[in-house]
Protein 1
Amino acid sequence: MRIVYMLLVTLFFSVQAMAQGKIAGKITDEKTGEPIIGATIVVKGTTDGTSTDVDGQFNVKAQEGTYTIEVKYIGYQGKEVGDIHVTGTGTTTVNVAIKEAKSTELKEVVVRSSIKKENINALYTVQKNSATISDGISADVIKKSPDRSTGEVLKRVSGTTIQDNKFVIVRGLSDRYNVALVDNAILPSTEPNRKAFSFDIIPSAMIDNIIITKAATPDLPGDFAGGAINILTKETPDQNFNTLSVGFNYNTQSTGQNFKSGYRTGTDFLGFDNGSRQLPSSFPSVKNIQSGNVSGQDGITAMQSLNNNYKISEHSALPGINLQGALGRVYHLSNNRKFGVTAAVTYNHTETIKKDLQRLYDNYDYTDNVYTYSTNLGALVNLGYYYGKNKITLKTLYNRIFDDNFLYREGINYSSTSDTRYYAYDLIQKSLFKTTLEGEHQVGSGQSKVNWILSYNLVTNNQPDQRKVSYSRALGTTADFSADNTSLGKANNRLFSDLNENILNAGVNYSLPVDLFEKSTIKVGLFGQSRTRDFSNRYIGMKVDPLSPDGDAVRTRPIETLYGNDVISNGTYMLDDLTGDGDKYDATATTAAAYAMSDNKLTDKVRIVWGVRVESYNLKLNSGNVHVNNTWTDALPSFNFTYSLSEKSNLRASYFRSVARPELREVAPIGYYDYDLSATVTGKADLVRSQVDNIDLRYEIFPGSGEILSASVFYKHFNKTLENNVYGQNSSYDINPTNYDGARNVGVEMEIRKNLGFIANNKFFKGLSLYANLAYIDSKVTLGETKYIQGKEITDRPLTGQSPYVINTSIAYTTEDGKFSANILYNRIGQRIFLVGGERLGNVYERPRDLLDFQASYSLSKKSELRLNVKDILSSPVFFYFDQNNNGKFDGVNYQNGQLDPFSDWKLQAYKPGSTFSLTYIWKF
């Protein structure tokens, strides 16, 4: 036993003696921020050394101790960086910016610096030397907010707001004017009825950083005017890590309250329907049902093959749960090669209630209760292989959202003079699978680079068996409620909907430094995208046979037994199918693009980045008798100017032209009934793309590490702008996209991120940081023809989704040892148009909300952390209203002769979301 003990002790100290740490970082050009390929790094006093890869990154082993590294590259001043402390097996990060040697220097010049100073200098280099006007948010800032999804994170970025907690509005421009990318690969729309990417499907824990580019360069996609939102997921790690986190949340309006839901399966909790809600493969075709070939026993068999469980289950809403796991591995191979893996999985489950949601408009006086059983499942795997001055990465992301909604509505329908009870069971399953293969290679011995990208995306959106059933009785009576199922309509049926879209992206870029002016780079590239989409809606249902003797009695049954097997078996119901040729479409969209640009450092202070991008877009769509084949080719020039007023400040100006194209669904002439809005959403085949001219001016100062002060002015002019309008005739509503003549958008943005240590030289103020971004935006749409709302002439109005102002502020505190941090965040947006009105319907506005959030975290040890979040502390009401008197404000709802006054404002929806408290434990090992 003693011998075993001595062997274990000997082995322990041997391992400790062999344990090595690492020094890692990135070498960049101090003037441009570009990575330096092939720079030599030597650890002074040792034989250890390496060179930078195609990203300018390096990694060198070192025993525990304090070191100085020396950085050398031909044509640049050498630099020594000291005070680098390596402990155990950890990695010490050193980012170094080096400067070109002047031609007048006759001997080698070596600049000496410290690790702290150099990391700050490198951060300045990244911020100050951006080629264009952009804003972003890093993983460190995301960690200090209570946000769980990318959609929630984005509202913290300057000039950015979020609609429905997931759709991005940049500089007041709705989602159609923005483009989404993940790891430089363009993402499609995740929504079947609009051009929008649902950012809530990407958990914040998977993000490395987010960059929103607001002024285009030719190497970016040409179809944005608000912003190009690039989400960069976790890269190859510098060192191995494992992280687990478990969190629970409590919502004041939902948790512990009576929660109602429809049919439930054992796999719902995992985010997957087990197939029991899907339309059976043996179910009769549309043609057979509509031709009358499915009747008698065949009809009964078909109806019995459906899932006819309408039972409403009740339980106390459970607390939300949030589980996340991540790991990173890096393997250093021979000949300076490296292979790394980052992987993460996330799981979220919530049960939320929109309680007593009011709807008071036109002929409706309703109160809704909406129950949402939601599961989000995500996974990410990133692989990176570095060899010499080359890099190849494979990044794969999968995310799935399972939202099972149950709506119960009570109220009055004045148009039919009836009391109403309405039930809607609606499961929405949507998923995104994305995989991107990307390579970057140095060409020759200089800084020339080739990078290429291949990407595949699969988007699905499935609504299996959306059920809508209404009951009514004569207003003012005490008679039994009777189901309105003697006939079927878009508001009273069973919908089976499927969307599948495949997207292929391919691109190649080549950059070449040239001996022109002080420093210049020419960049050219090609890009291609192919999208194919199949979409179908099928509307079926059971209606009472008018010849059935017990039809009236069956219609008074409660919802749970309304479609019981006993009444189906005795022939009370007939099977009907409302599906038309226009209820499905297939589409292909092909984009081919080429660009050329030049990045010129004219002097030590003046830089211009200019060029042109040409995009050709072809859209083909078939739906029933409608066939669309449109091609638009656009030349999109851009020009970005930067003048460095000092080492810490820039003056920027830019111009670029961009486009906004109608989404596939918007061109398809399909009518889809939205039971939530009581409206039919319909596309138009004659839509055309918008062209946008954009001008920006910005002044920015970088006072210290991670600090910024900036002010921006922007102007945008739109030709044939695209917006959604709502049109009402009698008691029916239609929402459709429309081209208006033009629009303009002008605004001012200001941003500050500042440490408050200048107030007093003590630990408290040094740990305080203030952040704020403010925007004021004014927009105007030219309608092209005189419009009337409630008899009033309308010649212009603001853009849809545009808020006149945006306020984002936060104040954060971190102790000197970093163990405790707290952050208070506030967000408010000005009133904005949700839907454009028409005829007897005013514009639908969303009123402002005050959002106040709080987070505190405490490190229990080096390996564990406890985090408390409080989201939406004030629980301000969500409020949408019809501006019937067209004065831009809500004046209250009035009644006239017992009905809603058409000339007073109406409520589209109003409810309180509640506050959410969450506690999360994080373990790192």
Protein 2
Amino acid sequence: MKFSPFLVLLTILFLNTDFSIAQNTSAKLTEIITGVQDHKGYDKEEFPLGLFTEEFYRRESVFALETLKELETIQKKELSQTEQISLKLLKFKLQETVDFYKYEAYLNPLLSDVGFHLSLPYQVRDLANYGQVKAYLNKLNAIPVYVDQHLALLREGIEKGITQPKVIFKGYETTYNDQIVKNAKESYYYSPFKNLPTGLSLEQRDSVLQAAETAIDKNVVPQFKRIKKFFETEYLTKARNSIGVSEIPNGREYYQNRLNYYTTLNLTAEEIHQIGLEEVARINAEMKKIIAEVNFEGSFDEFIAFLRTDDQFYATSAENLLKEARNISKKIDAQLPKFFKKLPRKPYGVAPVPDAIAPKYTTGRYISAQDDTQPGYYWVNTYDLPSRPLYVLPSLTAHEAVPGHHLQISLNGELGDSIPEFRRNFYLSAYGEGWGLYSEFLAEEMGLYTTPYEMFGKLTYEQWRACRLVVDTGIHALGWTKEQAVDFLRINTALSFHEINTEVDRYISWPGQAVSYKIGELKIRELREKAEKELGENFDIRDFHEVILSQGTVTLTIMEELVNNYIEKGKNIQQ
């Protein structure tokens, strides 16, 4: 067959044109992403704790809208797979900035266990060098401005009827009273200065310690006194009585927006509520099988009461609880190579939730490293030991440490130049919390649950997340009272009464977030079942996990596309 030189030339020109268009499109996307990443919004040296003003949020919304318009001109078919994912995620991220301003969420910087002043303890870390010491001192000295900004927002929220419900503030006084100390050295914020870096000169140490006491005496303790006065004389008297976010201005629309954001899908409150009821029924049947297995003579409620009250299920000291958590962590570490091709370089520690926030804090949480000199931390709440059963500790550890949050978040951060910077620190609850709950399921395959009670603990944690679908939508869309929410959790889970109350307060104060766990986990398990079925004996669990984790944090829709591509490639290899 002969080829016309003219046709060959046209083909070359056509291919080069296509390549040139793809290059230009890729370059334009990179330019926009760089612009977003370089966008400061405020002077971080002037505001080391961040800028929190209405004008700042308005400017950020305008910037996001303008960038979204630019992104609409990008032809995604000219992009690589990773670039297409970056495009979708950047749009998702920018839309959230727009919605945050649109629904005036900035006027409500409070949650039952996180937010505003409760965010300050996260700044307290070990200090590795003189630079970190100075940066930490700057943050302590910035607290007055930080408090000024937030009180202004909260006061505007009160005027507009955008507040948290009164019901979540029982015991809230501990969040500020515990920080009002007479001696600066007794302050939680002084603790990093008790173990200063060894490289500091004697003169530097003396200067730092003096500056630390001054900062706490003048800029930390007085601000917590202001916070106390504000809550007790202004905010708590004007907080709303209703608990559902649908009761605030534009609340119903806002709640659907939160469900869309936290699930990354388009599910209505009613659809999520029904999924929850079906999951609760399924898991309840599994729990009853275990009750029969241990030959317990009594009802489901009596078995739950037995778990809540029998001393064998509780640690005798905070240190014993932490030792058990560390022991479980090391057991899981040994199993990881069987399930994952790539493991994170970053280590993690196991530490107690700081006393400053423990009373209103959840049972455990993963805390990411702030920089390369620090590990991640799996925080275990040692407050109120009778509410911290040992039989749920394997599930908690798998979720918060490995193979859960530490593994996923650290690998995300270690993807390097293969993804843009904004994606290395990006977090979506449906993906991250879905992975955490899936990790509890995966821990069963790792042999982590060694007794029927620990298996029951695994199920009660899964049931807890299923109940969230019912309770969150019940509170914010279906008119449930707090008592209904508490009763639903009490009847269907083995959570302690303390945990149930702190959890319900959290759902009330943080609409929509709680449903992300179960929705994300269900999607991952659905995709795994699909891959196992279609690939048969060629299915490799390590390959599957590589696909889920390879692009870092993604929406559930993107995750499904990745897995479908993996299945198709697997089928082609088989043929």
Protein 3
Amino acid sequence: MFKRLEHLFGKFGEFIANNPLKIISIIILLLAYPLANVNKITFDTSNEGFLHKNDPILKDYNSFREQFGRDERIVIAIESDKIFTIPFLEKLKRLHRELEDNLPYLDEVTSLYNVRNTRGEKNQLIVEDLLEKFPKDSRDLEKLKEIVKNSEFYKNLFISEDLKLTTIIIETKAFVSEDTENLDELLGGFNETSSKVKRVLLTDEQNSEIVEKTREIVSKYNSSDFRIYYAGSPSVLDALKKMMRADMQKFTKITILIIVLFLFLIFRRVSATIYPIIVIILSLLTTVGLMAISGVAFKLPTQILPSFLVAVSIGATVHILSIFFDRFNKIGDKREALIYTMSHSGLAIAMTSITTAIGIGSFAGSEVAPIADMGVFASFGVLISLFLTLTLLPALLILTKLKPKPTKKRGKLDFFMKKLAYIPSYHSKEIIYISSILVVVALILISKLHTSHYPLEWFPKDDPNYIGTKYIDAKMRGSLTAEVIIDTEKENGWQNANRLEKLDRLTKELEGYSDGKSFIGKIISLNTIVKETNRALHENNQSFYTIPKNQALVSQELLLFENSGSDDLEDIVDSQFSKVRVTHKLPWKDSIDSLDILEHIKSSYQKIFPDSNVTLTGIIPILVHTFTKSIESSVKSYYIAFTLIAISMIFIMGSFRLGLISMIPNLVPILFGLSLMYIFKMPLDMFTLLIGSIAIGLAVDDTIHFMHNFKRYYKATDSSIEAIEKTFFTTGKAMVITTIILSLGFFVYIFGTMESVQNFGFITGSVILFALLADIFLAPAIMVELARRGKI
């Protein structure tokens, strides 16, 4: 069967040699459409971008935003010892107004300048902006300070407990309305509905526009007595997106430069340098074009896709070029050299690309959207690269005027490969024993690895977003939110005094709750407004900062607040008073550390309100859900990748036993790579979780080339030692070259901005080097021992 397949590849090479222009014309026609769509690719770093459109968590989140607006806020914190002075408050007022006047897609800006101040005056309820009557002297300032200091609502939301940090909270629109069809125009003005409006979520680009404008305005006000920090997921995610774009361009350029240099040094031919780059760039652009056509954006995990494809694509082209030029230099006939190359290595190259595609493609079923995208489009990219390597590259070689170079005697690399072949041939038992010990040690170290999903820690520690978020979390007890929606499914269900009292008791219990890993910094809901209103209507007496026992009084107070001119109720309760929003401020912690506290929050509300529908949503629940699903999906993908690649190896080896045995050199490098993570204190995060399936797909490439050629030479010579030496002289050189280039392609990630990407690059590059060592030492050693026992 293998001989028939190799013969078919040889015939295909003959067809290309006879019809190079036809092949190139067909390729141009096939790639034209995806290439024309490359410029339509988009970027998405939003939290919801990690979820599939049909994910129940996303549906709950969208329902929440539809009702209550966007929960992702930009937090501007201003530190000063002079907050309660007229110059500071005037500067705050100017900044506040400039933000209000200039920010796009704005819903609301809230600060001490305009935060609600609920008070009673002559039996009237007055809800006004805190600085509606701007202070004129020290007496006014002292009065203002007392109001702020004594407000439970302001504390840890707009003012720190030490009164030295105040915040401006910027809330943007969750949806942007688009006029999609002007019906009035179409119907000549006779239709009462002037337009059909479609509500679309605020895009990633629009979020960037908001963040950039905010930073531009805020930077003008920063000074020694008006020190500004900023936090909030819109700002953090925008910064991540900018780092991602910059890193993608940097990785791709450096990887291509490395490839160009190595190709030229190895082959000393312009054609052998340029043609692989053409194959790589076309593969990459075609993949990006397919993403754009499918409406799939680049997201945080998929940022590694371009440089991954660049690095992976080079392996097959090097094998083609290496065999082709070795043969061409000997016989001087391009046509015969190509037919020989395709017959000799075409099948092995096809199998290596297929197994790589299987490895990365195992993520296609992931419940985390960008990881699923990575699985689909990276595997497509690998297969596109394979197609171009087996068609376009040979066609270009045939059309190019080439002169054979005189074949040299065995060079330094040949001498080195001969020395390497000696070690597993004559020290096979020692290699197997040492490898077994190292595997046991690696398994012990791997058992101590910990998981993590902490996007904030991906930042450089001097980044303003990192510094600001950490500082605001410490001083204001949190910068992110977890939202709970309690739906009574009854009209006026939240005008019930008993239900409000339960809510108030529970929020008091939860506020300040800590499980040692995270904490609830503040809770805001309807009970806060009711208590403020009740106090105001009782001559501002603090002892009446409670929920009224009288049902009629609750309804009356809510009606009075609703008629006061404030629209704060719209952010907390629906128009029917059937469902209420409870906002929990939490610090930005590792998602793993937030699991327990979120479960505690949800179970607490379900216990107190068993007859209501309790939904937990918001930024932190989405981050936790994303990583939980990421772990589950990664485990599944490892099983899928291992099973499918093992089946491929059984097919290649033509033996069930040998196929499974050949998987050993592919698993050992992954174990060593994971043990390195423990040694260097790297967590298993969203990026490093990808390593297993990617690495097994890449590691198996060299194993396939080795096993495929070893089997051929062993049958010809009936000597395992001679078969190893011949394999090392032919395929072995290409294995070393491709491994060096491939590993350097991943080590490039070390120069990335994000720590998680640096870790991913270092470990994946290391695994690829370990894979080469396994295929040079362990795989041959196993074959030698099997041959001695007559089991090949």
